[in-house]
Amino acid sequence: NYVPARLTGIYLLLAATIIKLPVKKAIAAWRKYAHQHPSPNGGVPESIVAGALGIRLGGYNWYHGHKHFRAYLGEKEREIAPEDILTTVKMMDIAYILFSGVVLMMIIGLWQLGGIR
After folding, report:
1. pTM greater than 0.85
2. How far apart are CA 73 and CA 37, in angstroms?
3. CA dist., res. 89 & res. 21, Å (int)
4. 91 close to 55: Cβ distance less than 8 angstroms
5. Cα-Cα-Cα-Cα dihedral of 81, 37, 71, 12, to 10°?
6. Are 74 and 47 in contact (CB under 8 A)?
7. pLDDT at 43 over 80
8. Rounded mean pLDDT of the chain?
9. Which of 73, 47, 43 has its CA nearest to residue 58?
10. What is the mean pLDDT of residues 91-100?
11. Of 55, 104, 98, which Cα lies nearest the Cα of 75?
12. Strand runs (DSSP E) across 64-110, as ranges?
């Protein structure tokens, strides 16, 4: 999942650009924090979202009934708010639409070249 996670990161950055979130902060968070996540792939989208929203993710969480600490991702410029969930979903939706558009263009291109019959 190394490549898909990074492609997702690129599409999330494009989504952040479209909804006018600070992309430079998202990139900086990706570079600074993604590797601190226990998953080499999960840290990419989480750090980008944290940077774009100006929030800090991570800390103590419960997994299978046990308390675990995950490294903090992002700078805490403000407290997390309920509307951050909607903004994150909007970023995910836009990233999905952009990716789907690229795939559709590739399929159409292959079809026009005779690669798909």
Report:
1. yes
2. 8
3. 14
4. no
5. -20
6. yes
7. yes
8. 95
9. 73
10. 98
11. 55
12. 66-73
